[in-house]
Amino acid sequence: MEEYALKGTPEVEPLTFLLVESTQEEILRKHRDERDKRFPDQLYFSHQVVSLGDDELTAIEKVTDTNKGQKVSVQVSRNGEAIYTIQVGDSSPIRCLRGLWAYDNHWVLEVAHVTEKRGFQNTVDHDVFGQVIQDGISLNKPHGYQETFGYQLMGGKPFYFFKKRGRLGISYDNQEIMLGYTQIPHYWCCSASALNPRSAENMVAFFAQRGGVWYYVETGVFE
User: Fold this and answer.
1) Distance between CA 84 and CA 67 in Å, rounded?
2) What is the DSSP letter of 93?
């Protein structure tokens, strides 16, 4: 893991950040080849498909009209037969289906739960938290996590971020590492999405805050 302190809040249009030491160009050059090995961006698709052995797994985001507005659910099917469904809250610009993966004999789903909040003069905001589900079981409760997000396979092994007792950490190959960050931007939309974690085959790059200081961080299986 390589962590770089920033002089202030990163800018998003275009993405720009000033480091206490070194420069943005120099830091981004270091692992550019690895960072460019990005996964296909599926976050804009409400239908995702992966293979698990000889089976085809499908995740679909569904929107239903109710008397309380549009509600979203995500359903996982194996060879066309539904095996798991989860309610994930209100329809919004934030995609609730965050990804579907398969590794070894497991399938993994990540969803964002969204709750719409209307404020003064009918302004709209959203509360969002993430949940990673493996083989139909949430990772949040058994591990004492408040939230899990940013799942991916890194070097072929499971990786995700988690929040526990108000602090953030990472899990890689089922080993927890507490990082102590109080914020890692994720699920942000529109131009602010530039600060969301960026995943690649063997690494992830992300922004974080700790003690009021912003950091740019790259962690991965580097050669």
Assistant:
1) 25
2) S
In this predicted structure, which of 45-49, 63-67, 185-189, 217-221 has the lowest mean pLDDT? 45-49
What is the tens place of the pLDDT at every residue in 152-170?
999 889 999 999 988 999 9
Split at pLDDT 50, 70, 90, the class of 44 is: low
Could you give the CA distance from residue 157 to residue 172 in angstroms, rounded to a whole number? Answer: 7
For the cut 90, the answer to whether the pLDDT of residue 2 exceeds it is yes
Domain chopping of the chain, boundaries: 2-220
Residues counted in the chain: 223
In sequence order, which ranges of the chain are alpha helices (DSSP H)?
24-30, 32-35, 140-143
Per-residue model confidence (pLDDT) at position 183: 95
Rounded to the nearest 10°, the torsion over CA 222, 201, 128, 163 is: -30
Residue whose C-alpha is closest to residue 174's, from 88, 106, 83: 106
CA–CA separation, 14 vs 27, rounded Å? 17
CA–chain centroid gap for 168, Å, is 13
Write out the DSSP string of 33-48: HHHTSBPP--TT-SEE
Mean pLDDT of the chain: 91
Phi-psi region of 118 (alpha: psi -120 to 50; beta: other; left: phi over 0): beta
Assigned token pair, 112: 């964002």
Angle, alpha carbons 154-159-161 (nearest 5°): 140
Q: What is the mean pLDDT of residues 108-124?
A: 81
